[in-house]
Amino acid sequence: MPSDSRRAVDFESASDLIDVFLTQAARFKDQPLLRRKVDGKYLPVSWRSVQREALALANALLDQGIEPGDRVALISENRPEWFIADLAILMAGAVVVPCYVTNTVADHLHVLDDSGSKAMVVSTPKLAKRALEAAAQARVTPWAIAIEDPHLHQHTGIDVVAWDALVTRHADRPRPPTLAAIEPDDLATIIYTSGTGGAPKGVMLSHRNILHNCRGAYTVLKRIGLGREVFLSFLPLSHSYEHTAGMHFPISIGAEIWFAEGIDRLAVNMVEARPTIMTAVPRLYETMRTRVLRGLESQSEGKRKLFQRALDLGLKTYHTPEQMTLGERIMNSVLGLLVRKKVAKRFGGRLKAMVSGGGPLNVDVGLFFHALGVPILQGYGQTESSPVISCNIPGQVRMHTVGPPLRDTAVRIAEDGEILVKGDLVMKGYWNNDKATRETVDAEGWLHTGDVGLIDEHGCIQITDRKKDIIVNSGGDNVSPQRVEGLLCLEPEIGQAMVYGDRRPHLVGLLVPDEDWLRSWSAQAGKDGGLADLAEDPDLRKAMAEAVGRVNGKLGQIEKVRKFMIAPEPFTVDNDQMTPTMKVRRHILKAVYGPRLEGLYGG
User: Fold this and answer.
1) Could you name the CATH architecture of 5-276?
2) Structure confidence at residue 196 (pLDDT)
3) Same fold, 5-276 and 278-349+351-466
């Protein structure tokens, strides 16, 4: 794709998110902004179409009584209507309250009650059922806009209006007066944290907060030669990471966004969309690495040797490029065609950058893809910082770090090692929770991230652990659980892991076998049943113990996992043991498995 940096807005003059969108829509008109799969084919939705529908919906919201500053809940999977609803709510001067599609009725009720949402947008009948049940119990009863027919069989007490009817009724109306009244510091969204450590809190982000992130991301990525970029959206837009990096940032650079059909179709959709930029979480890279290596097992010995040679030389170009001989440089170029080009096709073939965020990326996983020519840029952030704080720079990747801070972002390390952040990216605070706000953002405006780390000689941030996740054993030693868990999950037998041992003499582990490995092992071992049936099987324990033993050989004495148990089910979003961005919910796992983990210390 030819470079065309003129597609980006002028970030210095952009005042708010709607100003950015309307500026871009006026430039690109009938060019595609979004693509969705319909009857097996990706169909485009133009900038003009999104603008027309968003303005109509904004007028509808105002006519239905929504006033500037009111909160509107948005409950939908990733789809064009998500974009349109988000923009329409902002156009009305209101505040977007995204909700995870995995929310239970109780989760929705917490968000509705805490935010005081006066209206809600719901998509499918399945999502509408839970949302409307929560709405009926809420302190403030919201009315609802249904993107699809919710198929209500009884009156819920909630006024439900059809999306299409509202848009049709308010089409071709004058632009709402609220557009001119939007200020940079107006509240744009309240995003509820995914709750890795307790009840979700509503993070208040302004237009200025999110624009700071967009400008910073542009400064980083313009080095790759930004043109007419294509994003593949699959992380939930209800999460701050995708909300900023997968919606507002692509809008700001005039990109095109394709919606993936789901994680199970992601590999297929990558080939269809051929994205140039993607945002993903570490778990995706771990899974892809496992699949690449597993696929290699069925290849000929010659192909396996070529792959290993490509990996070895790729790693050498990263660690000691100055030591590459002329022969190695020539061979490395040849292997780029024989091996790396084939790997690149798995990702569509034209990736410029895959940004990893939402959790720590294992260095070995990052280097694996880097050596194979997949350009991974590890970043760092949290919802409270809109969310990106730092990101590796193309051509200057330091894989063991999360890169330097974004433009106009101040970072310093507190005496106890905590990373502190200051700048226009820092949230306005937690909704209805001044106490938590004061505990997180100090009087001087420094955001206390809860992460522990350092800044290296190159100005890059290196994360060593979560402050609250650090395990302090009974001997007073500090242990990083994420480091140990990351190494465990690199073994082919282990799909998921959590280590445990605060104030205990050593670590124990909670393990979930890799699904594909377990299927293959069961067939070879002549075992019947699923994970729930095999969790206590002594032969499975022996096989898993071998994997744990290999990892222990790489760990210091205080990091070794002395005993472990096998969970009878995977950690998933549905059972509340993972966040929507695939991070372990330690407090939930401890509540479920705590007594059994404690039992591993007996005898």
Assistant:
1) 3-Layer(aba) Sandwich (3.40)
2) 52
3) yes
Point out the least confidently predicted range of 148-162, 383-397, 432-446.
148-162
Q: Which is the CATH superfamily of the domain at 471-599?
A: ANL, C-terminal domain (3.30.300.30)
Its CATH architecture, for the domain 278-349+351-466, is 3-Layer(aba) Sandwich (3.40)
Cβ-based neighbours of 26, under 8 Å, separated by 6 or more: none
Identify the helix (H) or strand (E) that includes residue 288. helix 282-296
pTM over 0.90: no
Q: Which residue, among 29, 56, 31, 32, has the nearest Cα to 44 in the 3D structure?
A: 32
Percent helix, strand and coil across the chain, each to the nearest 5:
40, 20, 35
Beta bridge partners of 119: 72, 143
Candidates 466, 377, 384, 481; CA nearest to 419 is 466
| Whether 179 contacts 156, CB under 8 Å | no
Report the DSSP pairing between strands 119-122 and 143-146.
Answer: parallel
Q: Are 191 and 95 in contact (CB under 8 A)?
A: no
Task: Write down the pLDDT at residue 5.
Answer: 54
Beta-bridge partners for 279? 355
The token pair that represents 462 in the structure block: 């290196």
d(CA 86, CA 602): 53
Residue for token digits 């133009």? Answer: 46
Residue 408, both tokens: 């106009």
Distance between CA atoms of residues 128 and 145, nearest Å: 10
The pLDDT of residue 2 is 34
At 295 the pLDDT is 87
**568: helix, strand or coil:** coil
Tell me the backbone φ, ψ of residue 472, rounded to 5 degrees: -110, 110
Buried b (16+ CB within 10 A) or exposed e, 525-539: eeeeeebeebbebee
Q: Maximum Cα–Cα distance for the chain, whole Å?
A: 76
At residue 510, φ and ψ (nearest 5 deg) are -115, 115
DSSP codes, 206-260:
EHHHHHHHHHHHHHHHGGG--BS-EEEE-S-TTSHHHHIIIIIHHHHTT-EEEEP
For residue 284, what pLDDT is reported?
85
CA pair distance 315, 334, nearest whole angstrom: 16
What are residue 227's phi and psi, to 5 degrees?
-130, -130
> Quick one: DSSP state of residue 479?
E
Kindly report the number of other CB atoms within 10 A of residue 562's CB atom.
Answer: 15
Among candidate residues 127, 161, 130, the one with its CA nearest the CA of residue 144:
161
Which residue ranges make up each domain of the chain?
Answer: 5-276, 278-349+351-466, 471-599
Closest to 11 in 3D by CA, of 255, 215, 245, 216: 215
Strands 447-455 and 418-423, sheet pairing: antiparallel
pLDDT of residue 3: 41
User: What stretches of 262-417 adopt beta strand conformation (E)?
Assistant: 277-280, 353-356, 376-381, 388-391, 409-413
By DSSP bridging, strand 256-259 and strand 230-233 are parallel
Q: Using DSSP bridges, classify how beta strands 388-391 and 376-381 pair: parallel, antiparallel or unpaired.
A: antiparallel
CA distance 515 to 286: 13
d(CA 216, CA 388): 9
CB count within 10 Å of CB 396 equals 12
Q: Which residue has tokens 């193309």?
A: 394
- Tokens describing residue 132: 């409307």
Q: Which of 564, 560, 532 is nearest to 545 (CA)?
A: 564
